Amino acid sequence: MVDPSALAAGGGTRKHTQYPYVTGTSVLGITYKDGILLASDTLGAYGSTKRYKSFQRLTKVNNCTVLGAGGELSDYQYIVRLLEELADDDFCMDDGHHMKPAEVFSYLTRVIYNRRNKMDPLWNSLVVGGWYAGKPFLGSIGMIGTHFTDNTVATGFGNHLARPILREKHRPDMSEEEARALLRECLTVCYYRDKNSINRFQIARVSAEGVDLGEPFALPTNWDHALFRDPAAHAVGTW
Amino acid sequence: MASATGGFNFDLVERNELLQKRGMQGPGFTKTGTTIAGIIFKDGIVLGADTRSTSGSTVADKNCEKIHFIAPNIYCCGAGTAADTENVTGMVSSQLELHRYGTNRESRVVTALTLLKSHLFKYQGHVSAALVLGGVDFKGPHLFTIYPHGSTDSLPYCTMGSGSLNAMSVFESGFRDDMDQASAVELVTRAIRAGVYNDLGSGSNVDICVIKRGSVEYLRNHQYLQGKTYERAHPMVIKSGNAPVVAERRFDVAQYVEVGPAPEAMELS
To answer: Which catalytic residues are annotated (chain B) (predicted)?
Structure first.
């Protein structure tokens, strides 16, 4: 007798998620002197279509932790629900304790790795950022459970576009202005060279004062190079 | 094996597939997982390239030259299959030299461009050469990218190869119109360095080529990024008197050995 939940309509075997549908692109994260900053754009893309243009991909988990996600956005919303359930438990316990960023990171790693082992992954690249006991926390989790912490993290296209800039210019003792300027530089490059992105970003800050998700903003772009305006300036008819 | 109608002759593909099913291993090829880049600055062109050539996961050549000579005023960086980039640029360089003898004029960059793209298009992408072509002729500075299928772009700054995104991020944040030579060389070096440090297919050192009207500076190994910090001297010279003498025992060998005259030398002729 075959378990009907293992069968698909039409009699074949049931398959799990093979590919993502509504996706988010890169998430960037850096530490600075007094906290951490996470940045992402606000696009939920449906393949090549820019379907949801104000999708918040950064969430406040509690007063000291922020989660950012790229990849399948429905899986991200499910993860946020799991974390909300944990936060509710903490609230009801009412003992003054809340989840530390490292705990959120550890929990999400186990959840993601467990799903990977069932060959039914949550198709996300997650960034967990937080500030606890006077120290910053910044970690990255891949969809198969690969996880690590570092002073700078980047997912998706940010791996190739933002990481070289971050590795060259980041210092752990930057001020908030310098850190924001560095992230804006990386976000501009990601917008120029990542097809699935829009010019609407959000930067979340976690510091001793708590979590500030920030208002969405746009960045100035420059398309005005002389040879962009006239590529055939030196050789008429070329392209 | 080009056919008379142009392009590759694929008649043996079926035979090769049959042989591979029976266990024959086809020949491999050396690729250049690469970072190459070029920009136009106030007085001309700066081209840059890393120097790592890979064969699968092995580094085949730690210090290869990826900036190829096309004409005295035109150079070309190549990414993709090393044999393809070397031969295609060599072929076009020879054709241009003959053309210079025939026309008695300096070669133009668009000539090199057209020769390269026509050749690559004829082979429909099977010649795996992705090129950054730059030069200065009497019409001004030119910078082009050429893709393996034969399409080209004319750009003020461009990058190709596996490290191209890493290098492009440096260009997008640092490029300005009409830079001076020092800033331009510094920017291209930074871009190639971004590829070397952040891309596994690129590595070793940075080559730079500065082309201006009437002059070319080929800065081979402009930056050593993987020089050895310590190199052992060979042969080792150990000064006598360094080791402390703890104990001493003397053997008189003369009692056991007879020293005789030297033997006759061997006949060698």
So the answer is: 34
